Amino acid sequence: AAAEKGGHEWFMEKEIHEQPQAVADTLLGRTDETGALVLDELRISEEQLRNVDRITFVACGTAAYAGMVAKYAIERWTRIPVEVALAHEFRYCDPIADERTLVVSISQSGETMDTLMAVKHAHDLGALTVSICNTHGATIPRESDAVLYTHAGPEIAVASTKGFLAQITACYLLGLYLAQLRGESYADDARVVLTELHETPDRIAEVLDRLDRVREIAHFMADTRSVLFLGRHVGYPIALEGALKLKELAYIHAEGFAAGELKHGPIALIEPGQPVFIVVPGPDTPHGLHGKVVSNIQEIRARGARTIVIAQDGDTAVEPFADEVIRVPRTSPMLQPLLTAVPLQVFAMELANAKGLDVDQPRNLAKSVTVE
Ligand code: G6P
């Protein structure tokens, strides 16, 4: 079994380390020599795709957070309204969808029953259905009009890691492709992102080289009862994912919040010693979001929180208010989630390790939930 795990203690650890490859393989062969995206495999006509006036993601768990990240990016690049629905809620909210709606399901396994039922319902409403899936020939891609495979390779650990980064990558490819088809002026911006997306596997590898401190922090925190996670913009779903991972793996109460929501409630939870992770947007994120998140850190620190800050290289503004700083390489705002998710995965895994838990098979969970 050690060989299967490539010398790693857990499949999860192996899969975390496979993330640069998962992203690179998902990008592979999807651009032509001019750098334009080619997604022939989608098998939906360009005309149909050009007519799309609404996009709805349906997914569960970690995959739904990939959809939340993608919403920010795809709306910006295409100006098409995007919503994200938990698959098990989709059918029951009387969803609005027709032949101009693209319903994009995201599922690593392609077998999640809730997601499958949402896809079938979308199909009945006449929507175009695209499956973003990691498993060739799985049920959800078979039941969809088109599929865009992620190429993360088999994911064995119950908690999704490389599947998640590959899902964000595939969602971005889809968004960039739609922007390209529509020829929006935003497509310029999109082209820069596409170039940078190809540099992302190396940056993820760099994050993986810097994990010693986060491992130590996890071991110090083995007795922690509750952890909060804050993020904003694309960092908000990453905060949610950080909290989900901690619940799943370490059985610790954890909650993710949008940092702007802090003053509307969650700040009441802050008491001396409360650990809070903050995913800080890069200093060049539009609308001054960086400064706003830095003041959030200052506010909670003033109330005694123990602040563990995930920030870009060179972001010195966070230092006065951070008990710990976990650094990630610089990247443009939309690509940050592919870096900031990684230390949070490792934190949850190491905390579970420190508690002597089974990282690959957490209690009560299944890799793929094939019942509704
Ligand atoms: C299960 C797993 C989660 C996963 C979710 C969606 O609940 O424990 O890790 O995110 O299913 O799985 P899918 O295969 O549809 O991506």
Description:
It is a single chain. With 372 residues, this protein is an alpha/beta fold. Helices cover 42% and strands 15% of the residues. It is built from 13 helices and 10 strands. It has helices at 11-17, 19-27, 46-50, 62-78, 87-90, 113-124, 139-142, 162-182, 187-208, 212-220, 235-250, 289-302, 337-354; strands spanning 54-59, 82-86, 101-107, 128-133, 146-149, 226-231, 253-258, 275-279, 306-312, 324-328. The strands form 2 sheets. A 5-stranded parallel sheet has the order 2-1-3-4-5, sandwiched between helices. Strands 7-6-8-9-10 form a 5-stranded parallel sheet, with helices on both faces. Helix 4 links the parallel strand 1 (54-59) and strand 2. Helix 2 (19-27) packs parallel to helix 8 (162-182) and helix 10 (212-220) packs across helix 13. The two termini are 32 Å apart. It binds 6-O-phosphono-alpha-D-glucopyranose. The site of 6-O-phosphono-alpha-D-glucopyranose (G6P) has 16 residues, from helix 4. The active site is at residue 367. It catalyses: D-fructose 6-phosphate + L-glutamine = D-glucosamine 6-phosphate + L-glutamate.
